[in-house]
Amino acid sequence: MVRIKMCGITNPGDAAAAADAGASSIGIIAFENSPRYVHPARLSEIRSALPPWVSVTVVAPDAEIAARYDADFWQLYSLPGGVANKPIIQAIRVGDDLNVADVLSNYGGSIALLFDAYHPDLMGGSGHRISESLADRLFAAPCQVPRILAGGLTPDNVAKAISTFTPWGVDVSSGIELSPGIKCPFKMKAFAAAVITANTL
Fold first, then answer.
1. pTM (2 decimals)?
2. Distance, CA of 14 to CA of 184 (rounded, Å)
3. Strand residues in 7-54 grouped as ranges (E)
4. Helix/strand/coil (H, E, C) string of 141-163?
5. In a 10 Å sphere around its CB, with 0-12 CB exposed, 13-18 middle and 19+ buried, how is residue 64 labelled?
6. Are strands 177-179 and 182-183 parallel, antiparallel or unpaired?
7. Fewest C-beta in 10 Å: which of 90, 99, 168, 190?
8. How many angstroms separate the first and last alpha carbons of the chain?
C-alpha cells in the first residue's frame, strides 16, 4: 500500500479535506519565504481538524526550526548533528549531479528518504518532476529505508509513477492546488483515487 502525504496544507479546511481524501500524513511548511508557510502558533488549529490516524509532518530547513512545531515527523533538508527529537524524513533535492549510491547508503538516522526535483529557488512545491532516468536509479537500487517520491505529481500521472518506480510513499503539493497554499478537494480525491487504483494493479 503506497502512502500519501499531502503537503503545503495551510488551513483546517484543507487538512480535513486531505484526511477525507485518504492522506496518511499532511505536510506543514516551515520556510518563511514560501506561500505555503504556516506559523507554529497556527498548527494546533490545523491539527484539530485531523482524525488521530493522520500524522503531521513539518517540512523545515533544519531541526532548530522544526522543533518549534508540534509535529509527528520532521522532514529536513539538513540533518541534525545529534539525536533528533522526532523521527526524520531526509528530503533530497535531486539534480543531475546527485550521487545516487552515496545518497542511498548514507542517510544518517533518518527513517525514510524523500526525493524531490531540484529547483534553484524553491525547496519544494515547484511542480517540477525528477527525470525518469534518475528516478529509476533512485528507486531500483537497494536501500535500507523507505523511499518517497515527490515532485510534479498530479492525479493524471501518479498511477504511472507508482507502477514505474514502486515508491513506499508519494508526496503531492502543487498538483492538488487551486493556487499556492490553497488546495482543491476534487483534485485531492482524484489524486488519492489514482493511488488506490495503482495499488490494486
1. 0.92
2. 8
3. 25-29
4. CCCCCCEEEECCCCCCCHHHHHH
5. exposed
6. antiparallel
7. 99
8. 11
Q: Which CATH class is domain 3-200?
A: alpha beta
CA distances from 73 to 16, 47, 65, 112, 154 (A): 19, 13, 13, 11, 24
- When mean pLDDT is compared across 18-22, 40-44, 112-116, 119-123, the lowest value belongs to 119-123
Question: The cell 485531492 sits on which residue?
Answer: 188
Rounded to whole angstroms, the Cα distance separating 50 from 27 reads 12
* Residue 186 CB partners (closer than 8 Å, separation 6+): none
Query: Residue 158 has which C-alpha cell?
Result: 501518479
- What are the domain boundaries of the chain? 3-200
Q: Left (φ > 0), alpha (ψ -120 to 50) or beta: where does 8 sit?
A: left
